[in-house]
Design a protein that fits this description.
Layout: H1 2-24, H2 29-66, H3 82-101, H4 103-106
Helix pairs in contact: 1-2, 1-3, 2-3
Transmembrane segments: 6-25, 32-50, 83-103
Protein name: DUF3899 domain-containing protein
Keywords: Membrane, Transmembrane, Transmembrane helix
């Protein structure tokens, strides 16, 4: 139950944030919805990816300089936390809403 609340709260916060940004730049929410949801998903994903890359570079340089094993190189594995699940779910829903809203232009 706690995870479902976190997923829903993540989606509500993302909606509010995208709505505020769309008002700030004078765009309609539907024009900004899908691209904004991709951007908000990419920010934490890239942060986790580059954090792993920096840790691996540190471990390799420490082993090269000192010869001590500093933890080795680790693979980046994407994990679905409740927040990331909410971001992915919001991205899929915003894609569906965007396709439904602009359906006339696809025909």
């Amino acid at each position: 139950m706690k995870k479902i609340v976190i997923v829903i709260l993540t989606m509500l916060i993302e909606t509010g944030l995208l709505w505020a940004i769309s008002i700030l730049i004078n765009w309609e929410l539907m024009e900004f919805l899908f691209l904004g949801s991709i951007l908000l998903f990419a920010i934490p994903w890239l942060f986790l990816y580059f954090n792993t890359q920096n840790q691996n570079a540190y471990n390799v340089s420490a082993k090269g300089i000192t010869g001590q094993d500093a933890g080795g190189v680790k693979l980046f594995r994407f994990r679905f936390s409740p927040i990331m699940t909410g971001l992915v779910l919001y991205m899929v829903l915003s894609l569906c809403l965007t396709i439904f809203y602009y359906y006339e232009y696809f025909i």
